[in-house]
Specification:
alpha/beta; Aspartate Aminotransferase, domain 1; Aspartate Aminotransferase, domain 2; 2 domains; 12 helices; 40% helix
Length: 415
């Protein structure tokens, strides 16, 4: 069955975003008319190189960076991997990395792999609001720390971390600092001219650009060893013939993101806030994750107690509503989100967590529909849920005891 975008309400913008029609318009000529190789010496190729230069300037403008600091990659994951890879290659005697418990799998799984290769990884815990303190970062950095990698904003909860402050600490201690800013760029202002972050990752498809394009910002005069080794593209920092159409698209998407930043923080935030407060007043037993003030303007992660998020998603899908859960379905069992678990949510509560993430395409009518549809879906599921304390078939169901057992298990895991 084909589901068309006209039939849905899309509130899963931290997963991916609709490609903006203006972005499509900008990229199409580079899929048809201007197919030259940007490295070619003739004008037909050179004009393509010029289009890449323009895109580099557009990305740099959004970040208040120098265009020479922008390296195009294939995605956010590659940018993350390349940053850490470079730090390790540049400092072969340094075998220690500092990161956090709430990173995206692009960093989390790379660090797990590096651990299996003999590196030591310090994984900083977060508090119940998803926060990390500068003191934690300072205490974790050692003389043999090759890099500190801490995300700017969390993809599941939207919690914003004070990475500019962390970067200053890393600088003082002589350690490289990288941030995964995939969720932050375009949602909050970023000014690379006024901070000490060495490397920063971006992903196009979170910015109304197609999938399969990313950026690694590398501060001028910060040494870098490429991960993709080949031709001299991207000033020798990333081999491979450029994905021209997507690069041009990302340039346009960054220009639009800059123009829409104010709207993200006013109208989109107001939509999110209205949705969140309506949920709080209409649905009992819910828990909103993440620091209330230091949160992306578009993100709302709600744990609905006594239901499984997967069931909520299924019923909302039937209503044409696209949102997501923090759980990863692995080997037939639902693992609760590592981010929510790190914030101290019990596995039962974390398994009921649903993320709603908005964007400038969302409207008041979308929120009207959500607040009409979501509460009855939750009531319906609670009425049949074996987790429901009030379920008639489960009069003696001891939810408090189950929670206690799960908390005990969590403490054991954390120890
Ligand atoms: N980092 C964060 C915080 C993300 O949310 C994502 C995508 O979900 C990525 C990295 C990976 O980006 P990409 O899908 O472009 O590889």
């Amino acid at each position: 069955m084909t589901v068309r975008k006209a039939d849905i309400i899309y509130v899963d913008n931290n997963a991916t975003t609709q490609v903006d029609p203006l972005v499509v318009e900008t990229m199409v000529p580079f899929l048809s008319e201007f197919y030259g190789n940007p490295s070619s010496a003739y004008n037909f190729g050179r004009q393509v190189a010029e289009a890449i230069d323009k895109a580099r300037e557009q990305v740099a403008a959004l970040l208040k960076a120098d265009p020479r600091e922008i390296i195009f990659t294939s995605c956010g994951t590659e940018s993350d991997n390349a940053a850490i890879n470079s730090a390790l290659l540049l400092n072969p005697s340094k075998k220690h990395i500092v990161t956090t418990k709430v990173e995206h799998s692009a960093i989390k799984n790379q660090c797990e792999f590096l651990k299996s290769q003999g590196y030591e990884i310090t994984i900083l815990p977060v508090d119940a609001q998803g926060r990390i303190t500068p003191e934690q970062v300072e205490a974790a950095i050692r003389p043999d720390t090759a890099i500190v990698s801490i995300m700017w904003a969390n993809n599941e909860t939207g919690v914003i971390l004070p990475v500019e402050h962390f970067a200053e600490i890393a600088k003082k201690k002589g350690t490289l600092f990288h941030t995964d800013a995939v969720q932050a760029v375009g949602k909050i202002p970023i000014d690379m001219s006024s901070n000490k972050i060495d490397m920063l990752s971006i992903s196009g498809h979170k910015l109304h650009c197609p999938k399969g394009i990313g950026v690694l910002y590398i501060r001028r005069r910060v040494s870098f060893k490429p991960m993709v080794i080949g031709g001299s593209q991207e000033r020798g920092k990333r081999g491979g013939t450029e994905n021209v159409a997507s690069i041009v698209a990302l340039g346009k998407a960054c220009e639009l993101a800059g123009e829409r930043l104010a709207e993200e923080n006013t109208r989109v935030k107001a939509l999110r806030d209205r949705f969140e407060s309506e949920m709080k007043s209409r649905v009992p037993d819910i828990y909103v994750s993440g620091d209330e003030t230091l949160r992306l303007p578009n993100t709302c992660n709600i744990a609905f107690d006594f239901v499984e998020a997967e069931a909520v998603l299924m019923l909302l899908d039937q209503e044409g509503i696209c949102c997501s859960s923090g759980s990863a379905c692995t080997t037939g069992s639902l693992d609760p989100s590592h981010v929510l678990s790190a914030m101290g949510l019990t596995p039962a509560r974390a398994r009921g967590a649903v993320r709603f993430s908005f964007c400038t395409y969302n409207t008041d009518e979308h929120i009207d529909k959500l607040i009409t549809v979501v509460p009855p879906v939750i009531s319906k599921l609670r009425a049949i849920s074996p987790l429901n304390k009030n379920h008639p078939d489960n009069e003696n169901y001891d939810i408090a005891k189950k929670r206690e057992e799960e908390e005990k298990l969590m403490n054991q895991i954390q120890d």
